Amino acid sequence: MNRSHFPFLLNTLTTISMVFAIWMVFLWVPTETNQGAVQRILYIHVPIAWGAMVSICIVAVASILYLHNRSAKWDRIAVSSAEAGAIFGSMMLFSGMMWARPVWGVFWTGEAKLVTTLILFLLFVAYLMFRNYFPEGIQQKKIAAVIGIIGAIDTPVIYFAANLWERAHPPLVTGPASDGDSLLSGSIELTLFVSAVAFSLLLFSLINLRYSVHKSEDAVNLFYRNSSIESNTL
Amino acid sequence: MKSLKTIWLIAKNDMALELRRREVVLTILGFSTLVFIIFTFTLDIKTYESQKFVPGIFWSAIAFAYALGLNKRFASEIENGTFEGLLLAPISRDIIFIGKFLGNFCFLFISTLISLPITTILFNISLFRIESLLICLVISVGLSTLGTLFAIMTVRVRAKEIMLPLLFLPAISPLLLAGVESMSELTIGSNYSEFKTWISFAVAYDLLFFVISVFLFHYTVQE
Amino acid sequence: MIYRYQTKLLVSIFLASIYFFSVNVDPIVAETPEKKITNGFITNIVTNEENTTIISVTESDGKTSNLKINPETNIGIESVAGERWVSIFSEKPQESITRLKDQQSRLIVLTVVHDGESILSISNADKRDLELNLQYLFIVFMIAWIVFFAYIFYLSRRQNAINRDIKLLKSQPSYEKETK
């Protein structure tokens, strides 16, 4: 495959699968009897949450590889993935709240998964803020990689702790579907799967787009640094 | 053996500095006591409900105060160039980290021990038990491991006053949970077996992040 | 450039999602000849000789309709404790009837979706604020897509700016030498 065709193929695939997923979510899958129309939020919420988890894993792997061989490529992948992860994380929180309000009766409870995802989102924010505030250079990239690794290790630990804590305090959940034992039938599962594929592809195309922007910017910055021309455009 | 001595020397140096300047311990104590006092009248906590709130107030005040203290501690080291000097010395980076960790751990542990009677007096709650020492010990180890690592990482950042808490507090949140839960068990007079899970969780957390921090520390300092 | 198509492709997803959303007719909300909605409480539950259960539902205006429970009727009702119980009738017929009788004794208002004869689903009505729920659904999809688009738009603008820069730099004779 020609390398320059890769982004185009990825974006086209994303578009097609996304349109197909939206068709399935709105037209194909039947409404769940338990929660009604609002249950369709889950077809966007669950894949986005999955995307956020995938992106923290990508950040961690890219960070380890960066510390291992110091290639700027891995650092770019880590930043791009963290940015996409922050967007996915905020959307995950938002869609989760919008689902919880009609179904649980509250926007937010101290439930294990909620606490974990909020902290995951904060870690993404901290990572990106750090990159913005630290003077640019090798040092910045190395420390950012350390933050990425610690964040990825911390996430399952936080989940474990929050689970342990939740068992001590049963969550105060009110509303009709507080039990949440609805029937996850075949069509719901299939729609969720297609939607997850579509959102994973969206995640990869966002990372890819951000990566190429970053790469071009690095090239231009390198040129300016070497020729010591003051740039007003950047 | 020699490395143990070096670790002790680094920690001792920090402690000597602290004895002269009283930066960190006073910051932690001052800030956390202020938080306690503010909470006693803003929340209007009655004696019978204090066990519900006090552990949470105690550990969050300590965590915030510690972030403040660490910021001060490393900012002055960078200002005076002593940290660069230490890095130039022919000592392994791991040993520098462990030495710094030991110093910071002592400050935090002493501050929590002094905070315990203050909490007891202000909130009419009994924390004078041998298990309190254990809880303070395991939580302090974890807080100072990640605190030291993050403080060294963020000391050169422009907005380090916000950057350190933003990294530090989410990362230590499981440890805070462990501290709060075990302390609230303690305040209602439970036995050790009631919060054994939390203590062992905190010990596992300490070990995990201690190993990771020692391993990752040399990437965070300049070569 | 491929990035010129990128925005267009993704705008088309956006438009498609709005289109699908506007086309989408929620099966519970829509009242068609095959699907009627009755809100009321149960006044009577009888099981006849052919082993079919018939429920009498009385609406607030006093109108009573007798409706048959099918084996595939969906049931989602709450117990006194507020615990929700969901099942299909054929799976647990005995328990379903017990729970419906409990609803009858407490005079709980239920939403019954039926085709005039047999019941498709029966569930607690009070919290089923479908208008409100549709709003939530709409807000989520709108905001999510707006955010993704804003991000993609921002990135493509940045890419275009940098491409312009690169073009400018490449026209300078010193470019080849400096980047090596």
Could you please describe the fold and organization of this structure?
Chain A is mostly helical and 234 residues long. Chain A has one domain. Helix content of chain A is 76%, strand content 0%. The longest helix of chain A has 42 residues. Chain A is globular, with a radius of gyration of 20 Å. Chain B has eight helices and no strands. Chain B starts with a helix and ends with a helix. Helix content of chain B is 83%, strand content 0%. Chain B is mainly alpha-helical and 223 residues long. Chain B has one domain. In chain B, α3 packs antiparallel against α7. Chain C is α+β, with helices and mostly antiparallel strands and 180 residues long. Helix content of chain C is 46%, strand content 28%. In chain C, a hairpin with a 5-residue loop joins β3 and β4. Chain C is rod-shaped. The two termini of chain C are 25 Å apart. At the A-C interface, α1, α2, α3 and α6 of A face α1, β3, β4, β6 and α3 of C.
Strands in their spatial order, largest beta sheet of chain C: 1-2-3-6-5
- Main structural class of chain A: mainly alpha
Report mean pLDDT of chain A, rounded to a whole number.
Answer: 81
Specify the overall morphology of chain C.
rod-shaped
Shape of chain A: globular
CA-CA gap between termini of chain C:
25 Å
Order of helices and strands of chain A: HHHHHH
CATH class of the largest domain in chain C reads Mainly Beta
Name some characteristics of this structure.
heterotrimer; A: 234 residues; mainly alpha; B: 223 residues; 8 helices
Q: What's the structural blueprint in terms of helices and strands?
A:
The complex is a heterotrimer of chains A (234), B (223) and C (180).
Chain A (H helix, E strand, L loop, with lengths): L5 H23 L13 H28 L2 H33 L7 H22 L4 H31 L17 H42 L7
Helix pairs in contact in A: 1-6, 2-3, 2-5, 2-6, 3-4, 3-6, 4-5
Chain B lengths: L1 H20 L2 H19 L7 H31 L1 H7 L4 H31 L6 H25 L5 H28 L8 H25 L3
Helix pairs in contact in B: 1-5, 2-3, 2-5, 3-5, 3-6, 3-7, 5-6, 5-8, 6-7, 6-8, 7-8
Chain C lengths: L1 H22 L12 E12 L5 E7 L4 E15 L5 E5 L4 H14 L3 E5 L3 E7 L5 H41 L4 H5 L1
Parallel strand pairs in C: 3-6
Antiparallel strand pairs in C: 1-2, 1-5, 2-3, 3-4, 5-6
Helix pairs in contact in C: 1-3
